[in-house]
Amino acid sequence: MKPFPKSKPPLFLFFLFFCLFLLPCLSSSTTTNNNSLNSNTTNSTIPHQFKEAPQFYNSPTCPTITTDIDENHNNDKYICSDETIHVAMTLDITYIRGSMAAILSVLQHSSCPENIFFHFICSSNTSLLSNTISKSFPYLKFQVYNFDNSIVSGLISTSIRSALDCPLNYARSYLANLIPLCVQRVVYLDSDLILVDDIAKLSATDLGQNEDTVLAAPQYCNANFTSYFTPTFWSNPSLSLTFANREACYFNTGVMVIDLVRWRSGDYTTKIEEWMELQKRMRIYELGSLPPFLLVFAGNIVSVDHRWNQHGLGGDNFRGLCRDLHPGPVSLLHWSGKGKPWVRLDANRPCPLDALWAPYDLLQTPFSFDS
Description:
The protein contains 14 helices and 11 strands. By secondary structure, the chain is an alpha/beta fold. It has one domain (76-360): Alpha-Beta Complex (Spore Coat Polysaccharide Biosynthesis Protein SpsA, Chain A), CATH 3.90.550. A 7-stranded mixed beta sheet has the order 3-2-1-4-9-6-10. Strands 5-11 form a two-stranded antiparallel ribbon. A two-stranded antiparallel ribbon has the order 7-8. Helix 11 packs across helix 12 (290-297). It is globular, with a radius of gyration of 24 Å. It starts with 8 loop residues before the first helix and ends in a 14-residue tail after the last helix.
C-alpha cells in the first residue's frame, strides 16, 4: 500500500476528528430538538442521563406474588395483593436525581424487592419521567399518576422558602384519591433521602385499633411546636383550642406510613383543605404544606422510631449549613432542609455526610463506560 502523500495528513485528520467528535454532537443536538417539538409537556428534556440499576431479587423467605405485570406496569392483581409493599413518591425534573437514588436505596436494602410497588405522582412531564424511571429500573413495578396542580394551587399561600410553594409538595394530601382503592397502606417518602434498612419494617408499623389513628411518622416533642404557627393563630382562642386535649408534637411529613382506608373514611383531604382555605383568609402559619398536617394530625399519630428519619442533613432553611447525624441507630438518612447532596457534590462543596448519599447516585457521567 502506498503511503499518504505528505500533503494529505491534515485533511485526513480533520475528517477523522469530524467523524469522532463533531458528528455525534450534531446528532445529539438534532435529537434534542426533535424531542422538544414532539413533546407537549412543560419541559422536554432531563438535564442528566442515568445508569441502569442492577436487578434485585427476593430472598427465599419472601411471599410469592404470582401475577404478571403488563407493559404499562398497571396489573391490578399485583397492586391489590396483600403481600405487596406500597411506596409513594412525587416525581419532577428538579428532584429526579434524588428520587433515583431513593428508589435504588429502597430496593438494595429490601429483603423482598420484587414485592415492592411504587406509586409516582407527577404534575408535568409525566411520560418523560416515566420513561426515565423505566430505563434505569427496567424491572421496577410502578404506576405513574398525574396530579392536577389546579386542585391545590388556589389554596397555596407563600411560605418562607419558595420551593415549598410548589403544588406537587401538596400531593401527599391527595394520595388516597390517586392510588387505587384496593391499596390499604402506603409508605410515603420524600425524594431527598436514602434507606439503609428494609422498608418492610417501616411499612409494618402498627397503627393500632383506633380508627382515628391514620398515620405514623417520626415526631419530635422537644421541638418548639408553637413556632410553626403565627401569633394570630395562638391569640385566637377558637383556633388555639384545636390542640386542646392533644399532646401535639411536630412530626416530619417526608416519611409517613398512611392507612388509606382510614384516611378515606375520615375524609382527611377535605380537613386539610379547610385549614388551607382559612390560611388564605388569615395567616396562621408560615411553612408550606407541613402546618395543615400538624393541625389535622398532631397528637393523634403513631410515633416512628427516629432511626427512620435522620433528618436535617440538608442544613437549615436559610444558609444550608452542614449538620451531623443525631445520636442513635440509622435506618434512613434524610437531607431535609435547604441543601441537597447532589447539588453540593456537583459544586465540589459537599458536606461530610453527602458521601453516604453518593454511592446511590445513578448519574451517568460523561466519561463513564457503563451501559
